[in-house]
Amino acid sequence: MNRTDSGHASGHDHGHTVAGWTGTGMALAGSVAAGGSMAAAWYPGLALGAGLVALSACTTWVLHLAGWGKPGGPRPPAERGWRVRDRSAAQGHPGCVGCRLAGRGRRTAAPGAATPAAWTPAVAPAAAGATAETGALPRAGV
Known about the structure:
mainly alpha; 4 helices; 44% helix; flat
């Protein structure tokens, strides 16, 4: 088995990144604060700790989008350091939910592909006019 300079098998990537370490540290601090506050029955501290955990998720996501995260799968040896910025983050990582939520890496329709039909109301025009006058909604199955 070939080993890299770090002693790991070739192709092995732990995925340690600035985004991952920052989010993990913040979530750990928030969990400790929330747990200590729960034990002390100090409810504002419990809310602050839970807020810090939620903020850690947002911070991790923003750092990932800024290129301090990593795409799925192993990276080339030159990009495995945890302080190496990912230059492909602007286009979005394939299969990454966080990138998709940010509008990156969306799939485009193939040329000539059928587009979905425009929305049409399910109510007949006469029934729609009648319900508009009375202010009532049409009933399904009538």
